[in-house]
Design a protein that fits this description.
Shape: flat
Number of helices: 11
CATH architecture of one domain: Up-down Bundle
Strand content: 15-25%
Mean pLDDT: 79
Strand order of the largest sheet: 1-5-7-8
Order of helices and strands: EEEEEEHEEHHHHHHHHHEEEEH
Distance between the termini: 68 Å
CATH superfamily of one domain: CRISPR-associated endonuclease Cas1, C-terminal domain
Low-confidence stretches: 328-336, 338-360, 366-375
Helix content: 25-40%
CATH class of one domain: Mainly Alpha
CATH topology of one domain: Four Helix Bundle (Hemerythrin (Met), subunit A)
Radius of gyration: 28 Å
Largest sheet: 4 strands, mixed
Number of strands: 12
């Protein structure tokens, strides 16, 4: 067998788990390359080496150039690469996932597809954000009303604590600078938070778009999870930075998010919260965090799952001598063109199993005409 050139990718089980990785690294106006198993970041000040397997998400801002070798290394290490706009106010795309099982994705899709379970998860999210509030039995309208009141109080509380004036949340996604200092700091901090949460969600194999509270957006679930931490992380950080009168609140916000996540072991918390929302207590024990080599399986209905890569046919090979061609006039073809369809003449009785009444009637009529069997 011919040897495949290049470095062999590491097995999935040897990679660093997502909750044990660094949070995120933001770069701009630099060249990202590869040196052995490290990502190199080079700008006018020099070169920095970053272990790719220990990185959760690499945020590439304007002026960032990344090489093919660096992307290959990030993909092999299952590190998420995110392309963002200037100052991190836009999000464009992301890279590969650490997950190999779809267990969490299936649980997420099942929960979000039922109104009853969707509201149940939404209540749990609000209970996590506001521990002293009772959410049992509340409708979504009531939950949204309570959220608005609690968030407004959180802003007012931070304004009073820091002495920073607060006139309400106001920002434009198309014009970052058209806002006051505290709103710019909030936007920058929230964007960095979205990037890290998005990386965790993708790494766990969940869908960023299947949200329980937010909806009809490709990052709905990202916003759902990020909202769990804003009152504790981004809101006080933004007011602190404005009170300190830092030269550039956007840069300081990104650094502040990095420092607070590092101290609070944010990734572990985020992974734990996502899993606890989507899995029952029994499933949490049955589905370990450690990455396993899971072979693709086939769904076999009520009997569960079967191993892939096998032929489950119990029928002998078909005898081609019984196959005949039946001309069927296609309504979509021009000039009444005929289409030849191969049918086994020994299986006519099973034709009705397809359940297409129109096609069945056309077939029966064609059969009677061919045999001259009109009464």
């Amino acid at each position: 067998m011919t040897k495949i050139p290049g470095v062999k990718p590491p097995p999935l089980t040897s990679l660093v788990r997502v909750q044990d990785r660094l949070t995120f690294l933001y770069t701009e106006h630099c060249v990202v390359n590869r040196a052995d198993n490290a990502v190199t970041i080079t700008d006018s000040r020099g070169t920095v080496h970053v272990p790719a397997a220990a990185l959760s998400v690499l945020m590439l801002g304007p002026g960032s150039n990344i090489t093919y070798a660096a992307i290959c290394l990030l993909a092999e290490s299952r590190s998420t690469c995110i392309w963002v706009g200037e100052r991190g106010v836009r999000y464009y795309c992301h890279g590969a996932s650490l997950a190999q099982s779809t267990h969490l994705l299936e649980a997420q899709a099942k929960l979000v597809s039922s109104e009853r379970t969707r509201v149940k998860i939404a209540r749990r999210m609000y209970a996590m954000r506001f521990p002293n509030e009772k959410t049992d039995g509340l409708t979504m309208q009531q939950l949204l009303g309570k959220e608005g009141t609690r968030v407004r109080r959180a802003y007012e509380r931070e304004s009073k604590r820091t002495g920073v004036p607060w006139a309400g949340r106001s920002y434009k996604t198309t014009d970052f600078d058209n806002a006051d200092e505290v709103n710019r700091a909030l936007s920058a901090a929230n964007t960095a938070l979205y990037g890290v949460v998005h990386a965790v969600i993708v790494a766990l194999g969940c869908s960023p778009g299947l949200g329980f509270i937010h909806a009809r957006n490709e990052r709905s679930f990202v916003y759902d999870i990020a909202d769990l931490y804003k009152v504790d992380i981004t809101v006080p950080l933004a007011f602190d930075l404005v009170a300190e009168q830092v030269p550039d609140v956007t840069v300081a916000a990104r650094r502040g998010i990095r420092d607070r996540m590092k101290d609070g072991r944010f990734l572990q918390r985020c992974v734990r919260d996502v899993r606890s929302l989507l899995l029952t207590s029994e499933e949490l024990e049955e589905v370990p965090l450690a990455v396993k080599d899971i072979t693709t399986q086939l769904w076999s209905g009520a009997s569960g799952y079967k191993a892939g890569g096998r032929n489950y046919s119990t029928e002998p090979d078909a005898d081609d001598s019984n196959v005949v061609d039946i001309p069927i006039v296609s309504s979509g073809a021009s000039d009444g063109a005929e289409i030849a369809v191969s049918v086994d003449d020994g299986e006519f009785d099973s034709f009705e199993d397809f359940g297409d009444a129109t096609l069945r009637e056309e077939y029966n009529g064609q059969s009677e005409t061919d045999s001259g069997g009109s009464e």
